[in-house]
Amino acid sequence: MRNEAISVLLVLLPFWSVVWAARDIFDGMTMEISATPAEDSYDDTLVNDGENGANTCINDIVPQDPIVLSPDTGPLKKFGSLLQKMPEAPQLPNFANVLQQLANAFKLSRFSEMSDVLKQIIRSYREPLQVYGKQWAGLFKKRCQEIMQNVKTVVDEQNKKIRDFFSNHFVQYKDVCLPDTNQCLQGIQTNLEQYTSKLNENLAACKRFTDRQLTQHAQWVANERKQLEKPFLKLDGCFKRGANGTNVAVCVGNLTSNTVKKLSDGMKKFSGVIGDASDSFANRMEKFRTCVVERRELLQRGQQRIADRGTQCLKNQPSKQDELFT
Fold this sequence. Notes:
- By secondary structure, this protein is an all-alpha fold.
- The protein has one domain.
- The chain has helices spanning 58-61, 95-106, 111-169, 183-236, 245-297, 300-315, 320-324, and strands at residues 55-57, 177-179.
- α4 (183-236) packs antiparallel against α5.
- The longest helix is centred in the middle third of the chain and has 59 residues, at 111-169.
C-alpha cells in the first residue's frame, strides 16, 4: 500500500522584521519606510494537484522589472517640439528703417491705416522673438528628456540587480514546476509580491521628487520665456480703447525704441536661463539615483530572507523519484 506522501511545509517568515529609518537626503522628502506586513498563516499540509493540475515554474515567478517608476513628463508638453541644435539669434528689422516707418505713420490721416502700420512694426520684432523663445524651450525639452532617460537607466540597473539576485538564488530550481495549489510555491509568490509592493511603496518618494523637480524647472523656463514677451504687452497697451492716432504713434515710437534696446540683453539672459535650468535639473536627478539605490538597499535583508526561506522550502519538496517509492 502506498504510504501517505511526505508533507513538508516551511512556514515562511515575513521577509523583513525591522522597520528601517534612513537619513533624509532630500529637502522635504520623508524617508519613512512602510510598516512590516502581517505574517501569513499557512496550513502545513502539502497539496499536490497531480499531473492534470495547473503548474507554475519557479523561473516564471522571479521578478523581472519589480521597480515601476514613470516620472510625469506632462510639464514639458507646453514647450512644443524638440530642437536638436543650438538656436541662432533671430534676424530683427533694421532700426533705422523702423524709425522711417514710424515717421511715415505719423503722416497718415486715418487712424486705421496708422494702426496697421504700427502693428506691423510690432510684429516684425515680436514674431522672430517668439520663434527664438520657442526654439530655446524646445532645446530645454530635449535636454530634459535626455536626463529622464538617465532616470530610466537607473531604474533598469536596479531592476537587473533584483532580477539577477533571485535568478541566481533559485538557479537550481529554475526548471522546477509545482502545482499552483502547492503551499511552498504560494508562499514564495506571496512574499515576492509583498516585496515588490513594499519596494515600490518605498521608492514612491523618489518619483515624487523627480516630478516636483521637473515641474519646478519647467516653470522656471516658462516664466523666463514670459519675460521676453513682457515689453510687447506694453506695446499692445498703446492701442487701448479711446486712444487717438497721435497718442498711439507716440506711445509705439517710445516703447519700440526702449524695446529694441532691451531685446539683445533679454535674448542673452533667456539662453542663459535654459543652460542653468538644464544643468540644475541634471544635478537634482543625481539625487534621484541616490534615492533609488539607498531605498532599495534598505530592503536587501528582506530580499535575502525571501530567497533563503524559499530555497529551503523548495529543497524539502518531494521529487518525482521519491514519490514513486512511497
